[in-house]
Design brief:
Rossmann fold; 37% helix; six-stranded mixed beta sheet; 347 residues; 3 domains
Length: 347
């Protein structure tokens, strides 16, 4: 029978000793398994499964402060992000949170918005708060860190840092092959803001792949994003710049989904139909990409998964389970939707 707790009544605290008595095991055995300590390696897997199942069934919650004092650890990591509520960082941080929560870790998040002075101050603040490692999101690590660090969209090889990177070469191949198969030759491009950590690598990959495919990149059909806006307003004025040049193009490959969505609005205001007159390809596959009209063709980054991989890599290193790799490559996927079609015959 399930007991209903009355409003204001303190919840019953299930102790580690109670879990042990429930299973007929010693508290030391239960503690070793639930804290994933080295001594747990000798415990049979069946017993480990029983312990974890019982802890879940009884709603056991470890005493964080007791664990911290006993192990002289904080079980806390720091997350340094350029932005927190945008469509890129949000699913990444969600993936980080999900992985850490299942392992009873906490995390502190700071947002710097590409302010170098703020970034330096926040890094010091996290260190003073006793974090055991750091995950950066869309942030360029400038110097070798004093703590274990995982950089999502990190591209600078540095001692002590694991970079989680997307295979931009493959991403460019997927997008440009799609447009070439649709007989697009005059393709416009939106280059990312230089402060974005992926911008340089993504553009260089596009240029290499275009050369391999004999696709000419016309300098007059390139526009440089130099604004920092997490909304579709990011792409809107730069698409207007392209249109003002009065040089026709049949496809646009935007830096990310947000800029692609803003560009579509600018194209439509100009009297162009997407995709009948101009096809548009984005990058990221943000949660809303499939629900805009037209739904957005894009290169998918598994953002939530990237957050999980980063958290797992950092915890493995903190807990000494394995040597850290300097780089972990993530494979992109291509998602064809309504915003691309065959190039118009008259062009």
């Amino acid at each position: 029978m399930v007991q209903v707790r009355k409003l204001g009544q303190k919840p019953t605290v299930i102790t580690l000793k109670a879990v042990a008595q429930h299973l007929g095991l010693t508290p030391g055995t239960v503690s070793a398994v639930l804290n994933d300590s080295p001594s747990a390696r000798s415990i049979p897997q069946e017993t480990k499964n029983r312990i974890r199942a019982a802890a879940k069934e009884l709603n056991y919650r470890p005493n964080f402060f007791a664990r911290t004092l006993r192990n002289k650890r904080t079980y806390t990591i720091g997350v340094i992000a350029e932005e927190i509520g945008d469509s890129y960082s949000s699913p990444i941080i969600s993936g980080i949170e999900q992985y850490l929560r299942e392992r009873n870790y906490f995390f502190l998040t700071v947002v710097h918005r590409h302010d170098t002075a703020l970034l330096s101050r926040y890094s010091q603040l996290l260190w003073e708060r006793g974090v055991e490692g750091i995950i950066t999101v869309d942030t360029t690590v400038q110097e070798a860190p004093s703590l274990p660090t995982v950089a999502i969209a990190g591209h600078k090889r540095m001692r002590g840092v694991t970079n989680i990177i997307l295979d931009h070469e493959k991403a460019a191949q997927l997008a440009l092959r799609h447009l070439k198969d649709l007989r697009h030759e005059r393709i416009a491009f939106m280059r990312g803001n230089p402060v974005s950590s992926d911008s340089k690598e993504r553009w260089e990959a596009i240029c290499r792949v275009a050369a391999q495919m004999d696709l000419r990149i016309d300098p007059d059909l390139i526009v440089q994003i130099d604004a920092d806006d997490p909304t579709p307003r990011l792409g809107y004025p730069f698409a207007k710049q392209l249109l003002a040049r009065q040089k026709p193009f049949t496809a646009l490959f935007a830096y990310n989904d947000i800029s692609a969505i803003g560009a579509i609005r600018a194209l439509q205001e100009h009297g162009l139909r997407v995709p009948q007159d101009v096809s548009v390809v984005g990058f990221d596959d943000i949660p809303g990409a499939a629900f805009y009209s037209p739904s957005l063709t894009t290169v998918r980054q598994p953002l939530n998964r990237m957050g999980e991989v980063a958290a797992q890599s950092l915890l493995d290193r903190i807990e000494g389970k394995k040597d850290y790799p300097s780089e972990i490559a993530i494979e992109p996927e291509f998602v064809a939707r309504e915003s691309t079609a065959n190039a118009p015959r008259s062009c």
